[in-house]
Amino acid sequence: MIEDPLIGKETAHRVGIQVFTVYAPYSAHEPDLIKTKTDYFVQDVTELLRYIS
């Protein structure tokens, strides 16, 4: 699952769905919190594509 809102990441992660997060400047103030709610944190879509291909 690729999820944007933190609550979506948290919910998916809690039920065992693997969560990908792509870095977004608007959430730069909370990267550590986001990383605890996701399985894969990538800097851009190109990096994401390497995981899913």
State the low-pLDDT regions, or none: none
SSE topology string: HEHEH
Shape, principal axes of CA atoms: flat
Structural classification: alpha+beta
CA radius of gyration is 10 Å
The average pLDDT value, as a whole number, equals: 84
Helix fraction by DSSP (H/I, runs of at least 4): 40-55%
User: What's the total count of β strands?
Assistant: 2
Number of helices: 3
What does this structure look like?
The protein is an alpha+beta fold and 53 residues long. Helices cover 43% and strands 11% of the residues. It has helices at residues 6-14, 31-36, 45-52, and strands at residues 20-22, 40-42. The protein has a two-stranded parallel ribbon with strand order 1-2. The model has no long low-confidence stretch (mean pLDDT 84).
Task: Give the SSE layout.
Blueprint: H1 6-14, E1 20-22, H2 31-36, E2 40-42, H3 45-52
Parallel strand pairs: 1-2
Structural features:
alpha+beta, two-stranded parallel sheet
Outline of the structure:
This protein is about 45% helix and about 10% strand. By secondary structure, the chain is of the alpha+beta class. A two-stranded parallel ribbon has the order 1-2.
